[in-house]
Specification:
With 93 residues, this protein is mostly helical. It is 69% helix and 0% strand.
Length: 93
């Protein structure tokens, strides 16, 4: 988020407004892992002319998907199950 604050312009704020701003974004986006926030920052810098609203951030984050070893194993297991189910339905097993 610091990158976005440094790169994208936003409306000026005083100290209290700035703290409320950070708290609101932290509340809504704080549960996302670092990879997701990195994805958000990259996409926001590509798409946005101004610092994105929370709604815009959530819309961008809706396009992010985990891509780690756990997810890859889960996908591979699902593919094995699907192949076996198809083979059984065709009477091959």
């Amino acid at each position: 988020m610091r990158t976005l604050l440094a790169v994208l312009p936003k409306r000026g704020t005083d100290e209290i407004s700035g703290k409320l701003f950070v708290a609101a974004y932290q509340k809504k986006l704080g549960t996302y892992p670092g990879d997701a926030i990195g994805f958000l920052a990259d996409k926001a810098m590509e798409r946005c002319r101004w610092f994105p609203t929370i709604a815009e951030c959530l819309e961008i984050l809706s396009k992010w998907h985990r891509d780690d070893e756990h997810v890859r194993r889960k996908i591979a297991a699902r593919e094995i199950v699907d192949r076996e189910e198809r083979a059984r339905s065709r009477g091959e097993i």
